[in-house]
Q: What sequence folds into this?
């Protein structure tokens, strides 16, 4: 059924809805099924239940770096967050070095990428090139429609909230794996 099923999925939802958790769980199940998983996940760094930072996780190598801190000094600023330029450069090198994969995850595309040309800027051409069987691109709600129109044939997944994240990830992982098969069938 490849060809009938969208290769690129835009994952959106409000702050704290569980977009990163959703992508992380789908990546785990895909890896367990033998898929080659790559891309960047941006999990929260928590202290006593409060989000104090954002990390960048290379899903292929497992390498992890601090991407942003709340109220930090210097770096690339957006709102209350200060993004580390060296981690942004590292993440873009990770994305540019990808030769292809079964599942590509980009978490997230937002104002840094779309308004400032910064952040995970290497993600936009990578998503367009299609060197993957399936891609999950986390996009802020205010940018989701524009990206949906920019990438014809994409589908949109809206995560309504953290309580729904687990069953949505399980459902979509099951559907993805059934329709697209095992990881032994490499794409491109």
A:
């Amino acid at each position: 059924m490849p060809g009938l099923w969208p290769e690129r999925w835009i994952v959106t939802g409000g702050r704290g809805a569980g977009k990163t958790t959703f992508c992380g769980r789908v990546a785990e199940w895909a890896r367990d099924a033998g898929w080659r998983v790559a891309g960047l996940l941006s999990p929260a760094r928590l202290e006593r239940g409060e989000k104090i930072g954002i990390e960048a996780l290379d899903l292929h190598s497992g390498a992890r770096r601090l991407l942003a801190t709340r109220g930090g000094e210097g770096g690339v600023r957006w709102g209350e967050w200060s993004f580390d330029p060296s981690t942004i450069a590292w993440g873009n090198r990770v994305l540019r070095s990808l030769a292809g994969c079964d599942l590509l995850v980009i978490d997230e595309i937002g104002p840094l990428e779309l308004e400032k040309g910064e952040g995970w800027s290497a993600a936009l051409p990578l998503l367009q090139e299609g060197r993957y069987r399936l891609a999950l691109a986390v996009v802020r709600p205010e940018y989701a429609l524009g990206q949906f129109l920019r990438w014809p044939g994409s589908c949109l997944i809206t995560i309504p909230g953290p309580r729904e994240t687990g069953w949505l990830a399980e459902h979509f992982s099951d559907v993805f794996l059934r329709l697209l098969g095992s990881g032994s069938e490499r794409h491109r």
Confidence is low (pLDDT under 50) at residues 184-188. The first strand starts at residue 8 and ends at 12.
